[in-house]
Design goal:
Elements: E1 3-21, E2 24-38, E3 43-48, H1 52-70, H2 78-89, H3 97-117, H4 121-125, E4 132-138, H5 147-163, E5 168-172, H6 177-191, E6 197-200, H7 207-219, E7 224-226, H8 234-243, E8 247-250, H9 256-265, E9 271-272, H10 276-279, H11 281-294, H12 307-318, E10 334-337, H13 342-345, H14 354-360, E11 364-366, H15 379-385, E12 386-387
Parallel strand pairs: 4-5, 4-10, 5-6, 6-7, 7-8, 8-9
Antiparallel strand pairs: 1-2, 1-12, 2-3, 4-11
Helix pairs in contact: 1-3, 2-3, 3-11, 5-6, 6-7, 7-8, 9-11
The structure holds calcium ion.
């Protein structure tokens, strides 16, 4: 069996409304899908993390840099191919876009391996510790509104996400420490006293400001404080973790086993959030997961993107061993974006229907059981949204 072609599909559309997080506002949704074809008619799908023009640059890396290294090779040799590509790109990028690009290719090779074996990726990894996963719905994005109007909006949106049946919810921060504390207060009021909520700063604070916001989050019984400070600032993370009671989470901007080794050895995180579509794909995710568990750090995957990324993460969450285990173990959750996303809801011939499942099954989504990722993207849908990169 040989790889015959690797193709990137960049999908894009204008969102019905502009959304924001602490770094920027954005008005377009982008997805970067990777399609690996073989001489035996089996096709694998993967996805690369990276919005907008980053996706266009990553497409060039996938098609012009990685493709020539692996065409003609056996797709089942995914770990051999991972190291061939990584070792040749090491001098040009041990983090960032080369790893995002390799991630999409690696996920597609796992999809092929599952289809060849007739097994889902979770079975290929070693089996399912769980067949369904609790889902948290994130929303409460920033808008170009004044703080008092956002406070009102966040309170209502938090209540609405709870009403949809999600197991927990997550808000954005980013207006500045004082207003962010008011936004978090509004979210607690919106969901009531006994519902789990988290807050995501997308690394917008100094350590001192993060302490101020972290103390406010503690008072509100917030479950985790995500990416409070810059991902490079391991010392700052360690200080926050030592000084705050709220869980410190992060890691979506860290790459491969060597990057994660540094983060974990710095004792920077209470909860690790690896992004499989960025850190190096499923092959590398499994090594990072083992490193996290070796440091006794629980993992709740970062999830962003289309139905391909959601399916990949459902497979990984099913195959994740409980840490440390018990009759009522702490469970990982699936991250789910509640804002407008056609690439997640309409890409597949048989949609995952996460929101319907959440509503019907008490906040849980089931893991696809078909071979590989267990999904089939619709080629007509892809053609309709594909842009030239
Ligand atoms: Ca985040």
């Amino acid at each position: 069996m040989k790889i015959t072609q690797i193709k990137s599909h960049i999908l894009q559309y204008d969102l019905p409304e502009e959304l924001g997080y602490s770094q920027q506002y954005y008005a377009r949704r982008t997805a970067h899908l990777v399609e690996v074809t073989t001489d035996e008619g089996i096709t694998g799908w993967g996805e690369c993390f990276g919005p907008g023009n980053v996706a266009i640059a990553n497409k060039t890396i996938v098609e012009k840099v990685i493709q020539p290294l692996v065409v003609g090779e056996n797709p089942l040799d995914r770990d051999v191919l991972w190291h061939k590509v990584y070792n040749l790109l090491r001098d040009h990028g041990q983090k960032g876009m080369p790893l995002q690009s390799l991630s999409g290719v690696d996920i597609a090779l796992w999809d092929i391996a599952g289809k060849v074996a007739g097994l889902s990726i979770s079975q290929l990894i070693g089996g399912r510790h769980r067949t369904k996963v609790p889902v948290y719905g994130y929303g409460m994005m920033l808008r170009r509104e004044d703080a008092s109007s956002l406070v009102c909006r966040f309170k209502h949106e938090a209540a609405a996400i709870k009403e949809m049946g999600f197991a927990a919810t997550k808000m954005k921060l980013g207006l500045g420490p004082k207003d962010d504390a008011k936004l978090a207060q509004a979210v607690r009021e919106g969901v009531g006293p006994n519902f789990r909520f988290m807050a995501d700063a997308n690394h917008c604070y100094t350590t001192a400001d993060a302490f101020y916001v972290g103390r406010a989050l503690e008072e509100l019984d917030c479950y985790w404080f995500e990416e409070p400070i810059a991902p490079e600032d391991y010392d700052g993370y360690r200080e926050l973790r030592a000084g705050l009671k709220v869980n410190i989470s992060g890691g979506e901007a860290e790459f491969n086993r060597w990057g994660w080794r540094g983060l974990l050895e710095a004792r920077a995180l209470d909860i690790a959030q690896p992004e499989v579509c960025a850190l190096g794909g499923i092959s590398e995710y499994l090594r990072v997961l083992a490193l996290c568990h070796a440091h006794f750090v629980p993992v709740v995957n970062h999830v962003w993107g289309s139905a391909v990324a959601v399916a990949a993460n459902l497979q990984l969450l099913a195959a994740m061993p409980p840490l440390p285990g018990g009759l009522f173990p702490s469970e990982p959750m699936l991250e789910f974006d509640t804002t407008h996303n056609s690439f997640r809801d309409e890409l597949l011939k048989e949609p995952l229907g996460i929101q319907q499942q959440v509503k019907q099954n008490g906040g849980y989504a089931s893991v696809p059981s078909g071979p590989g990722l267990g999904i089939e993207p619709d080629p007509d849908f892809i053609r309709h949204y594909e842009i030239d990169g």
